[in-house]
């Protein structure tokens, strides 16, 4: 699980709605917390869908609360979401929920004061993987509910990728990959070649993909730094605007035992959020 605790902003100047149900699956609600600044950078307000990590098997939206408040403090709204988890729910349940969350904030834009044309995504680890998919795919590619009557699509227009898996077919420790594949996909890793390709954001990238800002730890042993390099190379070839920041001494997370590294991570996270706000307010 990846928990973000940059700082604890007081809930001053922020309207918070906890436990908003954005979809119901098999009579079970799937929820988000909605943070809206009282003084947004624009009206209607840009909104960011925030997605927690946890290897698609654990974690919750509360892991991202501090990061959500960091963004709200910058004048944009945040939909901090839960999604269905493995092993009970197999892929593609996770991305289906994330896409429905995007559709929810777009459909409810007038009610919440959001701008449906200014929606971004931020995710950490598995949540970053899902955010990358939101920047390059639409609902039909994962067989979720069809879009009715020419309504909004499920794409976002800017992505912050915090050490997310990009190409699940290579670079990963085989024992870890096998465990995750069994839990999330339902097959052994060596038997899930096609599923791993379909699970990989790199295979959905196009020239129309959302601009992306990536932060990756050089010392990350769970999601190797090579993953960020592969994303960099792919987006460069496609001509998609992007930034890649690789931090020496950073592992898989936003904190370490080295205060110098921690200070660098905090600085770069701040830059990433500033970049996202700038993208959503262009």
Characteristics:
Rossmann fold; 8 helices; alpha/beta; single chain
Portion of residues in helices? 25-40%
Mean pLDDT, as a whole number? 93
Low-confidence stretches: 5-10
What is the CATH class?
Alpha Beta
Q: What's the total number of strands?
A: 8
Order the strands across the largest sheet as they lie in space.
Answer: 1-2-4-3-5-6-7-8
CATH topology: Rossmann fold
CATH superfamily: Alpha/Beta hydrolase fold, catalytic domain
CATH architecture classification name: 3-Layer(aba) Sandwich
What structural category do the secondary elements indicate?
A: alpha/beta
Discrete helix count:
8
What does this structure look like?
- By secondary structure, this protein is of the alpha/beta class.
- The chain has a single domain, classed as Rossmann fold (3-Layer(aba) Sandwich), CATH 3.40.50.1820.
- Helices cover 32% and strands 22% of the residues.
- The chain has helices spanning 65-73, 93-107, 109-112, 126-134, 174-185, 193-198, 226-238, 259-280, and strands at 14-25, 28-37, 45-51, 77-81, 114-124, 159-162, 212-217, 242-247.
- Helix 4 links the parallel strand 5 (114-124) and strand 6.
- Helix 2 (93-107) crosses helix 4.
- It is globular.
């Amino acid at each position: 699980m990846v928990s973000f605790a940059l700082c604890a902003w007081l809930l001053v100047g922020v309207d918070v709605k906890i436990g908003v149900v954005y979809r119901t699956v098999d009579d079970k609600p799937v929820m988000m917390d909605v943070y809206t600044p009282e003084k947004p950078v624009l009206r209607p307000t840009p909104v960011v869908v925030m997605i927690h990590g946890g290897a698609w098997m654990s974690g919750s939206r509360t892991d991202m609360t501090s990061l959500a408040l960091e963004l709200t403090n910058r004048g944009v709204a945040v939909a901090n979401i839960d999604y269905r988890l493995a092993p009970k729910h197999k892929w593609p349940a996770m991305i289906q929920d994330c896409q429905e969350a995007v559709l929810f904030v777009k459909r409810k834009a007038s009610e919440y004061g959001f701008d449906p044309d200014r929606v971004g995504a931020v995710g950490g680890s598995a949540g970053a993987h899902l955010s990358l998919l939101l920047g390059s795919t639409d609902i039909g590619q994962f067989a979720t509910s069809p879009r009715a009557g020419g309504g909004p699509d499920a794409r976002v227009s800017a992505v912050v990728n915090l050490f997310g898996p990009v190409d699940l077919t290579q670079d990963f420790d085989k024992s870890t990959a096998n465990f995750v594949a069994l839990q999330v996909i339902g097959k052994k890793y060596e038997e899930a070649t096609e599923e791993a390709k379909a699970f990989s954001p790199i295979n959905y990238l196009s020239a129309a993909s959302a601009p992306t800002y990536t932060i990756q730890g050089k010392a990350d042993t769970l999601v190797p730094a090579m993953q960020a390099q592969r994303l960099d190379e792919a987006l460069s070839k496609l001509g998609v605007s992007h930034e890649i920041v690789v931090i020496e001494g950073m592992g898989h997370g936003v904190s370490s035992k080295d205060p110098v590294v921690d200070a660098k991570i905090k600085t770069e996270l701040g830059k990433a959020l500033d970049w996202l706000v700038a993208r959503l307010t262009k």
